[in-house]
Specification:
It contains 6 helices and 3 strands; from the N terminus they run βαβαβαααα. It is mostly helical. The protein folds into 2 domains: 75 residues, no CATH class; 30 residues, no CATH class. Strands 2-1-3 form a 3-stranded parallel sheet, covered by helices on one side. The longest helix has 11 residues.
Length: 107
Amino acid sequence: MFTRIAPVNGPFKEMPVFQDYEKLSHVKVEFIEAPTDGFQEKKNLLFASNELPDALFRSGLSPLEAIRYGSAGQLIPLEGLIDEYAPNLKKLMEEYPEIRAGITTPE
């Protein structure tokens, strides 16, 4: 998982919330951390090289980047997975439609 890291936070793998997530889910997350300084350049290099991680977290993708990378097939749509794998998110988006608008592209 590619993510931005702030010096005050320390490595994600040492954060209790992610340690608990790994214990509960039995999923080992490998973080690719980039400092805030230079983060945009590192993100651009990942997309330019097409050496992409399985997930992005705190990536700061702009709507334009999401559309550009999605159209290029570098980002995949997740809507088809929500019903089966994220029923709580689905319910939340039904109650608050603005959430869907905030986390999806117009396509």
